[in-house]
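User: Can you write out an input/output pair for a complex, sequences first and structure second?

Assistant: Here is one pair. Inputs:
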Amino acid sequence: MKLDKTRAENLPLVREALGFGQVGSAARHPVWFMRQAGRYLPEYMAIRSRMEFVDLCRSPKDAAEVTLQPLRRFDLDAAIIFSDILVPCMALGQTLTFGKGHGPQLAPAMRSREDFRALKRPDVAAELGYVGDAISLTKSQLAPGKALIGFAGAPFTVATYMIEGGSSKEFTATKAMIFRDPALFADFMKLLRDVTVDYLLMQVRAGADALMLFDTWAGNLTPDDYARHVWPVTADLMATVRESTGVPVTYFSGQGSDRILELGRGAKSDPATRKAFDVLSVDWRVRIPHAARLVKEAALDVALQGNLDPQVLIGPEQLVRERVRSIMEEVHAARSAGLIHGHIFNVGHGLLPHTPPEALSWAIDEVRKQSAQGASNP
Amino acid sequence: MKLDKTRAENLPLVREALGFGQVGSAARHPVWFMRQAGRYLPEYMAIRSRMEFVDLCRSPKDAAEVTLQPLRRFDLDAAIIFSDILVPCMALGQTLTFGKGHGPQLAPAMRSREDFRALKRPDVAAELGYVGDAISLTKSQLAPGKALIGFAGAPFTVATYMIEGGSSKEFTATKAMIFRDPALFADFMKLLRDVTVDYLLMQVRAGADALMLFDTWAGNLTPDDYARHVWPVTADLMATVRESTGVPVTYFSGQGSDRILELGRGAKSDPATRKAFDVLSVDWRVRIPHAARLVKEAALDVALQGNLDPQVLIGPEQLVRERVRSIMEEVHAARSAGLIHGHIFNVGHGLLPHTPPEALSWAIDEVRKQSAQGASNP
């Protein structure tokens, strides 16, 4: 897939705006927040009061509106398209519902070879075209200099929902498949990889400037199971999209984002790992200095993203500013020591519905202040 | 607190039987399983069919019976007293119930200074005497050479349940307290520390040969919050009990057990950390070689416990044996390299209700086989 000339020429600007390996040249330290469009914003709730969540994902006009809401309120450097990592499961033939008081539910659960055969092999552009339309619409309304991020769930994380039939604590059905029928699990991961490649390419075609892959539950596996059953297909997915589009890719593995770096350290010569991503998004359980050290040891040419505990935003202004300052100082030190190239300020996991919107203003203001004072982009 | 002469003389035997730093002299590689007494055993379900969970915890005769059940079925080296980490919350004045389909519920939730003042300051020996009685009764029926382990929830993990009023995913109320009223949180942790010290001393007095502290949710905090608000009081608790009784103490911090080791590495000279525990129980997210390396770097004189993913036990026999063998080989290598002294084979988290009992037999058999072949205790 080739980007048209204008977009190809704009790529370095996007990389710079998002702080990917452009130390010193970026005008400012990029900042955005995972789930920055969502339930903590009254203007989002106003739209949700008249439509269901899934319908909102499917309505390009409303999804674009919701995507842009936080950029009207806050001084953010990027928008991330409003959608859900489980949207592709519908194209694969499952029904997606969000019940009150419990999380997403997918039916029928994908548990057997028979279930696997029954899944649709979707024409992504046709079935998920509404996501592309939402991206195009958002892009046309987005101020110049702001990046638009497309995203997908990573195959493992999406697989857990499809196999369990929803959220899970113990991932019993998923692990039962990995341990009892690894060939079926591998085939399923391969299908999800293929669908996700198509899905992300479509998003870039529609106008996404950068991509992010969410592997929220990857941290629940043993490092060996992750290395064997998850990482190779995930790395291949990202490398394929990166090589095909030139668009920067961010990988987020929740609940211990240093695992992937431990893996990287053990696999310095693994070309797939080296080509897989531009940015590693780290959760708050990992210290930035620790992640930066591992990035260096693995000789990975990546930037870091993160990693404010989103719950810090329920604290008083002084605490919010202290915690932001502390992350900015850690980033500054890691950059000065040559451990990492770039950094994108973000939370270590999605914003929560009870987040007070003003807390984001304090955090962003503190990022700008620290950035101006040279705590970043030294 | 002084142990009587016989028990004091027996301590080295317990240490040896449990593999705490007695490389080469232990007759065999110790093995037990977290939650080895519980719902996966039909004989446990038979007792539960006639009484509620909380009543079972409160009945010394039944608790002792349930504690001993897995030792009749399996070749285990230790029993762990059947109880629940939330039992002390009742002595503190909360009502504990286990509803169908959801986890434990504690009422009223402990959210304010007023709630804190309203908590009882319990006479632990009087209010939780039934746990001591269950330990004495179990001890009198336990075969010689088998260790009896007492336990408690760590202050942070117990605090989360008491503050949230039950289980939690995001720990919003807990973090709100830490971030908005750290003085109240510190006072609460101090109260839980004091109650837990009394509770564990009582368990040793009643006959517990070793102790374990479960900090299941500690991994949800940022490393800095853990280091500031949780570890000092937790380390002090364990050091106090250890020094007072001489009984070995195991610390389990779930969801990334290497965090405590990262901390240890940064605090080599911290005397509280050095005196806090004898064994670190690691979950399955951490590789044994990684944990062993961190133990060495922190110059901690501890053994490791763990770390089979309990879900592996739903796999076929060959897989169970492979995974056990792999852990035993890692332990062997770490011991040969002088990184760790001892090791206790265990799961990385409690056994799950759907575990097939025969899988434990395979795992134990493989531990014995590997141990005999010199994969351990070289």
